[in-house]
Task: structure prediction
Amino acid sequence: MIVEPKVREYICTTAHPQGCEESIKRQIEVVEKQGTMEGPKRVLVIGCSTGYGLASRITSAFGCKAATIGIMFERPSNGKRTATPGWYNTVAFEKNAEKEGLYAKTINGDAFSKEVKDQTIELIKKDLGTVDMVIYSLAAPRRTMPDGSVASSCLRTTGEAFTEKNLDLRNNEVNTKTVEPATDEELDGTIKVMGGGDWKDWIAALSEAGVLAEETVTVAYSYIGPKLTYPIYYNGTIGMAKRDLHQAAKDITAEFKTRGVQAYVSVNKALVTQASAAIPVVPLYFAILYKVMKEHGTHEGCIQQISRLFHDKLLKEQPITDNEGLIRMDDWEQDETIQKEVMDIWAKVDTDNVKQLADVDGYWEDFYHMFGFHYENLDYTKDVDVEVSIPSIQ
Ligand code: NAD
Result:
């Protein structure tokens, strides 16, 4: 099949297997350039196939030489349509891991479910005995709760309606977007899906089954962002879920103290991923941030973020946190000079000047790369096999 991008606003419904392989190759190169680290040896990554979770799996495997078990929710190709990018990423990841002699197995299913938790525990018991690091990097629209009810997450405010400038992804024009307040039910649903409840369930299940090593480290990812986006992000429904996640880290560390489990939240940088592209207002902030950070030489992608997380902040005798106990990988994004320049641009950006003042091309480059497109060294006119299977799929 000749695979072309089919973009609908913030989603691309096709993915290119070779492009995804290229993306994995480039991410491995970034990690290998940093050199090998003393770190975890058996890592479980929940949400392993794209974005920050994928970067965590690559860093664990190629930076620490760790065995990895990954959990994801991806769709294979049925011959007529391509697989999702996370599927192709995982094919390429496992291929490269095997070449390096690194253990890698993947479970494709609903991480919120008891079945997948049980399946994971069985696999750990059978192949690894225990894991010594658990990365929790899910971004999902809904969660089937243990009682069978379905909770949905939404991106709304928790106070007044909020109107701000927005990048219209259909035509790159700057318009305004109004985000309405959530109902109590919507807020509750978002906390259930994106908060810390399921992370706690995972750690409890793993601990109970005896598959957590002594002094296991577990890390989940969060975002805070600038004051500008507080109404839609940090003080919005998603921010309330993130606060719940931050509390979950404290709860996990307290509850599993006797086993030495340490839970951390790493607050990461704003980056284009499938999850973040869907948030209103935020993509315009991303495009301006990219421009300013690239000019200052401090721009990073997911892989640079996670590689720096492991190297500089996490794999220390005592991980480096702020006063709230959060690891701040958004330190360069939140730098005062960077934020001042971003806000100055925000005040004047409009449809006529957005291409000059913001890195709209950089935004779209990251977007297309996520789906395996726009790699200059690949020939996209060639036929590719889209029905590829993941060697270890469970
Ligand atoms: P993403 O969409 O790239 O990745 C989500 C992952 O979760 C994928 O591997 C997907 O397969 C998996 N997944 C989704 N639903 C699942 C389910 N039911 N069962 C099993 N797997 C499932 O998202 P991302 O942006 O990398 O987000 C990961 C975490 O990082 C989130 O907590 C997000 O809030 C946080 N974060 C993101 C940003 C950003 O700007 N993108 C910034 C800071 C923090």
Q: What stands out?
A: The longest helix spans residues 237-255. The chain has a mean pLDDT of 96.
